[in-house]
Amino acid sequence: MGECESGAAGETESARFIRRDALPGIEALHATFVHHRYAPHIHNDIAIAYVDRGAVRFALENHNHVAPTGAVFLIPPQAVHVCEPAADAGYTYRVLYLDLGRLAAFMGRTSLLYTWRAASTVVDSCELAGALKHFHEMISLPGAALEQGEALATLARILDDVLRAPATPSTSRMPPGVRAARDYIHAHWCDDFSVDELARGVGLSPFYLVRSFRSHIGMPPSAYRRSLRVEAARQLLQQGEPPSCVAAQCGFYDQAHLNRHFKRAIGVTPTRYAHGNRA
Fold it and tell me: What is the value of pTM for the model shown?
């Protein structure tokens, strides 16, 4: 599929996803939200957002941030976060989702390893903001594969400089039991298991596991597993799987169950995300 644009529009809200064959592993979201509040969720990719209008309030792993008009904010892969409008008029923003493995290959590297710094999640960089706006302008254009690649190369260079800045010491460490529970959920995200089974598997009591997991991850184990299921559904939809087949493959009860949680986490329904309008 050369391009996918998905729209969910009312009088004041809209969301459009764009993908290009020439840019594998990359997806753009151009959206305006006034009332929509994302449910706690994660992405497999790094998310880089530019705020065109209004302000975004978001919580990222127990840290609260506000990104005003003109700001860039970064969400690392696998980080639990929630976004909502920070003002009554809502916000308009453009988000770039980058698969770090694909980005590394584009840059001629075997991998990209960054140490995340919560204090610099909202980035004050005119250079990065300018490169990000230019890339979004290019990815919106059909028949501009060369220009899109050049814009990505410029953006990747600046982003690499930003993310390789000296790291600050971490003030919180994830307990081994919570880390083991998170790893278990990643390995069994499509399975139906109980909290007792999860707790026994990592050597903790159910009470302590649920309390510690929520404290350190930002959501309870069930919500974390559901977020992984939504991400798996998103990947299948990108690959062309019909929405009617995705729910069962990703552990949802039925299509309505998938629709409800997908829209809360992604901003549009699976059908709009998968099919949308062609340009």
Answer: 0.80
